Amino acid sequence: MAAAFLFVGAILGAGALRAWQQVKIFVAKSRVTMLDVRYEILQHATRKPSIIMLGDSITANVPWREAAECASVSNYGMDGDTTEGVISRLREVLILRPKAVFLMIGANDILKRHATAETAENVRRIVERLEAAEVTVYVHPILPIDSIEGLAAETNVAVARAIAGTRAALVPLPINVADTRDGLHLAASGFLKWRDTIAPIMRRHC
């Protein structure tokens, strides 16, 4: 009788172990995030952009696919983004393997009072990660910001020094505060100046 109980106990114990293992496996699989799913989808996308516009709301507000003379351009501007934010989502850009990236970032770093040296270092990190993936990088200086134009200019100098050892090209834009609608975000005149300035470069990569 004791042997029978031991046998039944062993079976029940083995069944419980298998059930626990199945639950454990299920829990491990459930750790896949929606971001992981998005990365997987992007990695297998059949249409991948030749050019990515990367930055904050200044970039996001431009309808690049319609405005540019290139159908293969994607807008990866994000409202409120900072240099740290771009670093955190850079994997998504790299998965797409673009030929070129136009980067304009740093205005929100200034508005959020991030240290100038930190902003410059982050831009250098972004550029180096892109270049390591054989992406050609064009860096736009931070545009003038109403009432703190001097701070924007100071940050631009620091960024230029930080990326001096990279292959990235600095592409200044002929835009001033008069080309904005609120002292920061671009009006139509600013959009057009930006588009027309980089159109010849875009044609090389499109």
Brief synopsis:
This protein has 206 residues and is an alpha/beta fold. The protein is built from ten helices and five strands, in the order ααβααβααβααβαβα. The chain has one domain: SGNH hydrolase (Rossmann fold).
Plain-language structure description:
- With 206 residues, the protein is α/β, with parallel strands linked by helices.
- The chain has a single domain (49-205), classed as Rossmann fold (3-Layer(aba) Sandwich).
- The chain has helices spanning 2-29, 34-43, 57-60, 64-67, 83-88, 90-96, 107-111, 116-132, 149-162, 188-205; strands at 51-55, 73-77, 100-104, 136-139, 169-170.
- Helix 9 (149-162) links the parallel strand 4 and strand 5 (169-170).
- The model is unreliable at 2-30 (pLDDT under 50).
Blueprint (SSEs and pairs):
Blueprint: H1 2-29, H2 34-43, E1 51-55, H3 57-60, H4 64-67, E2 73-77, H5 83-88, H6 90-96, E3 100-104, H7 107-111, H8 116-132, E4 136-139, H9 149-162, E5 169-170, H10 188-205
Parallel strand pairs: 1-2, 1-3, 3-4, 4-5
SS-based class: alpha/beta
Relative strand content: 5-15%
| CATH fold title | Rossmann fold
The gyration radius over C-alpha positions equals 25 Å
Largest sheet: 5 strands, parallel
Helix count, per DSSP? 10
In whole angstroms, how far apart are the ends? Answer: 81 Å
CATH homologous superfamily placement: SGNH hydrolase
- Average pLDDT number: 84
**Count of distinct structural domains:** 1
Reading off the top of the CATH hierarchy, the class is best stated as: Alpha Beta
Contiguous uncertain segments of 5+ residues:
2-30
By DSSP, the count of extended strands is: 5
With strands numbered from the N-terminus, the spatial order across the biggest sheet is 2-1-3-4-5
